Amino acid sequence: MKSAKLILIAVLVATAIVNTANADIPRRDAASNIIRLTYTEAIQDAGLVAAMHAQLNGAFLGSPGLNTVTLRVKFQNHVYLITGTRTQWNIFFNYNGITEKPKTKVVLFRIDD
To answer: What is the 3-state secondary structure (H, E, C) of 6-40?
Structure first.
């Protein structure tokens, strides 16, 4: 029984030594660098929008059958997975003359005296 206790203590000490030897090496978790955003969330950041314009092209818009598209953008040491609809990406790339509708409505009226 004494030898079993000594072996168990030796294994614990060896494990502790091995774990502390690797403690100073930074571990990079690739999953922590991936950020998932919707199109609406992504266009709120001007830097991310600039990176999107620099890295993306609208070639996928020509293929039929894609209603929701997720694109990958690298920005500030992170990978952004941006999901948007075909209409949103059309607006972003300004394809086929589609532009965003203005948020305010202009109403013209005439007052007669």
So the answer is: HHHHHHHHHHHHHHHHCCCCCCCCHHHHEEEEEHH
